[in-house]
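Two proteins were folded this term; both appear here.
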Amino acid sequence: MSTSYFAGCTVLVTGASAGIGREFARQLAPVVGSMILVARRSDRLEALELELKVINPDLEVFCRALDLRNHDDLVKFCNWLEESGLAVDLLINNAGLGDRGRFIDSDWDKVNAMLRVNIEALTYLTYRILPSMRKSGCGAILNVSSVVGFLPIPSLAVYAASKAYVTSFSEALRAELRSSNISVTVLCPGPVPTEFHSVAARVDVEQISLPDFITVPVQRVVHEALARVARDRPRLIPGIALRMLLTLVLFIPMFIKRLIYDVQLRREGAPRTNLRPDLGAKMPSHI
């Protein structure tokens, strides 16, 4: 797929300072007219801007250091965007936070930040940008979800649930906008070699090794995602092996998945406990 489909577009990328977001900026830089890069780390944004200017000296780049956890700052950014006159043609909601470990042992500040970035910021940014797309009569939205959003995943409980929201929201929004010439695509990657997994991991939680056959390079993930947007496709799960594996897993009944979760729990050395007999006796009969 040639990125010429996006020639002259104005693109907004969140989480642009690293990983998938940075790769979106790199692959789009040769052809787009303007690029708005959003991330927390201003030093990385500035370095990326210099890199993109080498790729395309005519590219107009707007870097905005923004913490998407802060709703007030996000509102100010959207106000600036409207006042600037920049009409976003392609919105890439890429920013996301993760956390791996048991929910009961989690840090609430980290959980709350994950909900704010993965769900609230993505939804609000879409809400604010959609009117200008409707006014111009066209546009595209690419929401980055995750393959874990298709399943409840122990030790990724909140993250997987937040990505289930992104996938569901994207599909519903696509259906609503079918007659408006605005496309919505959701990207559901599996393991991608970026710094995301190391940031999401807790210091007291053992790192997991991911099988190579389902790992997809970030360059390929982004290339295929942009091809899907250009062809107005609803969803992408990168990697044939991952798609086949997910299809098999989704066919497994939930009660069998629960048995698998129990086995995994015992392997980790945490005994499965039941309600105390006296507590069970006190439970209302209708529960």
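Next, the second protein.
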Amino acid sequence: MPSFQCQTCGAAFDVARGTLERFPGWKPRFCRAHSAKKRAARPGGAARKFVPASVFAREENLTLAQVLAKYSGGPTTGVFTDGSSVPNPGPGGWGVVWVDAGAIREARHGRHPKTTNNRMELTALIEAFRLLPDDAEVIVHTDSRLCIDTIETWAPAWERKGWRKKGGEIKNLEMVQELLAQRRAHPRCTLQWIAGHSGQRWNEYADSLSTAWMRDEL
């Protein structure tokens, strides 16, 4: 999920891609707590155009039990992944849950003291493929379009060019190479985008795993 830095408090905050797509060209500048406070008047008294705070995705930081009690929608079979850092960069975590017809087969999570959102998203996907057998035929979900584009489109092209790309270095190269290898080792799996923070039970569950390091209770 894309992250931005609040120009008032400096905190990192996430905005759902669906929201960004509804407002082409909009670059969020303020977190939910401060967006409404930035309706300062322009010279002459005209109010500045602003985006209501309600469009910002909320990071609820629910426990696993709370997620299961609150959410019921979305796919019931597949592997669901998520990762984030708070702030970005900063400490972060990742989470993976594999479910079959609504029953959990396996779940994993971890944390890192200094990382980025993208590194945690990549880690979650690497761990997802690692827990699957080579002949698995399931959908692996991520809410990071960047990760999908990287592995399904850009990384093979970079590989053909000797792991080089136009315009600079490849960020998180070792992780990209590992994820590409894991993806190829599971040819029957499908890597698919899922909307983050949209009330889909198992995506919310993966999100809860990724933020478990922030809580006393899993």
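Residues 145-160 form the longest helix (16 residues). Strands lie at 3-5, 12-14, 78-85, 90-100, 103-115, 139-142, 190-193. These notes refer to the second protein only.
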